[in-house]
Amino acid sequence: MKRFYAWTSLCCLAVTSPLTFAKEIQGMSFSHQDWEVYCSNTGTCRAAGYQDDYLQSMPATILLTRKAGAKQTVQGTFALSSFDQALDNKKLNNLNFFINNQDYGRVRINISEQLLTGALNRKQLNALLQQTRKKANIVFKNAYYTWQVSDAGMTASLLKMDDFQQRMGTVGALVNPGTADESKVLAAQPKLVVNKVKTAAKPYLTLQPNSRQYQNLHKLLMAARPTQSDVAEFCEGIYDGEGAKPQAIELYKLTNNKVIATTLCWRGAYNEGYGAWVMNQSLTGKASFVTESASGFAAGEISSAQKGRGIGDCWKMSEWIWQGQAFVQTVDRWSGMCKGFAGGAWDLDLIEAVVK
């Protein structure tokens, strides 16, 4: 996901591994058609469904959230908006929730800058969950407005949620419930706790590409690229009319005789990404690669915010915190598909942490 300006569907592949409740949980993401699911290091899963591409003028989304562990219920929230017309607040009363043309009653809405949000009650949520293996016509409507959430991809996404939380074949499974109890389902884990060590906010040294020291350091940084990266494309620099050119390297002091080296690696129509490496203050030895998509660095914190391309802005956000020995990733978040919600509709986390 290096270059968001060349947009492709995020998280179209599941990143899963066998898990047991005794092991550290690795986050998982998956998307199929109009639904996606993100499960974090705490074991909490969030599945979101959206309108299909033919209904982009009336963005609609439902978020289903379930914590890991036995006897955990599903919570359902929704967001509705309008992409090309202003909603008339006087016409937003008496909005009801329908499944397959059956009315399941009024939904309470909160109105904020043309965004309608609310929660499904238990009756409405149960009606939706009863359709996890069937076709479902999911609609919010009144006499003036209609929003429809696609069911395409819902079964696959909720099946991934069940699989991640080890509920397959149990009485609590959402898609294929069985008779097994939930004694062996994935147990919830606490959020990662990271103690932040503050460092310098400004660089102490800037090296230009024409210097010998730069050239020696640049070789060390490029040698530390991730194994899956293409040598020709990794941190290639900025196009200047003739070709991609490496950019200046800035060095910031950390702690424990470590420094962070940063350089502008790439730039596109919507985003740019800086590379970040940790190494000895002597600028010798092996460098430790952190990211190639940083947006900024200051006082022991690397941040990244990359805009997705589509109808309405959506964002991929990351954060790494210096804890004295290394940078630890504390945020890995996606705001949801680019489906007409400015800034994205949700916070879908792979990593949840508390920074102290």
From TrEMBL:
Top-level lineage group: Bacteria
Keywords attached to this entry: Signal
Pfam families: DUF1176
InterPro entries documented for this protein: DUF1176 (IPR009560)
KW Signal (keyword) present: yes
Signal peptide from the UniProt entry: 1-22
Protein name: DUF1176 domain-containing protein
Organism: Acinetobacter kookii
